Amino acid sequence: FANTALAGKRVVITAGPTREALDPVRYLSNHSSGKMGYALARAAVEAGARTTLVSGPVGLATPEHVERVDVISARDMLAACQERSASCDIFIACAAVADYRPAEIQDQKIKKGGEHSSLALVRNPDIVAAVAAGSPRPFTVGFAAETRDVLNYARDKLARKNLDMIVANDVAAEGLGFASDENEVTVIWREGEQALARAGKQTLARQIIQLIATHAGQPQ
Ligand code: PMT
């Protein structure tokens, strides 16, 4: 191991997008590539953790020494996380989970109709909030992908979802956030915050893991 910050700890990390089926050939999704979550998994392994990635559909190779559980939809991801969250020490929600899914999945391909069409959607379960509401619960870390007022929205999510830490991610800036190789974030916890300068996702992942290790070790 490159360091022992998380020696003996079990870490579960969600990564990538979810896909919400509309019919046998179509789905709703987003631009998450999984790079940030996979970089966190590598950094957790380097720090000595037993690491599981609960991964949406991405085109990335599984990092060495990482257990990978593949899921498609938000509800699949919730089930995979709930199976594992009570027995892990740290849970990191880096996945870009679809907030809504089609109210119905059609059995057959939807055919073209008139000029306009609309789609009924229903809310998906909130995975990180469900994990944070568990008992016992792991040290729970969320991400907040925002395009404006990033720190305020992130602080609001930290409180509302009852998280221990949140990584505020401005995804409006060119070359940062979704699908890019670089990122720039502010890590926020109850009593403080630390801005991490623009860098490659692997470098940032190591910094985030070190901050998590410091705070997860303290009594909550
Ligand atoms: O995958 P990459 O291309 O490398 O991009 C990385 C990233 C931009 C996806 C990542 O850094 C990031 O910001 N991930 C969170 C994306 C997101 O959906 O944020 P949100 O603000 O909508 O969600 C807030 C938190 O709740 C997140 O921890 C999210 O995982 C979680 N969530 C959201 C909805 C839901 N139904 N369940 C959840 O657990």
Structure description:
This is Coenzyme A biosynthesis bifunctional protein CoaBC. Residues 6-213 form the DNA/pantothenate metabolism flavoprotein C-terminal domain. It catalyses: N-[(R)-4-phosphopantothenoyl]-L-cysteine + H(+) = (R)-4'-phosphopantetheine + CO2; (R)-4'-phosphopantothenate + L-cysteine + CTP = N-[(R)-4-phosphopantothenoyl]-L-cysteine + CMP + diphosphate + H(+). The chain is built from five helices and twelve strands. It is α/β, with parallel strands linked by helices. The protein has one domain: 3-Layer(aba) Sandwich (Rossmann fold). The chain has an eight-stranded mixed β-sheet, with helices on both faces. A two-stranded antiparallel ribbon has the order 2-3. Strands 7-8 form a two-stranded antiparallel ribbon. Ligand PMT binds at residues 14, 16, 32-37, 74, 93-97, 99, 124, 126-128, 142-145, 157, 169, 171, 177-179.
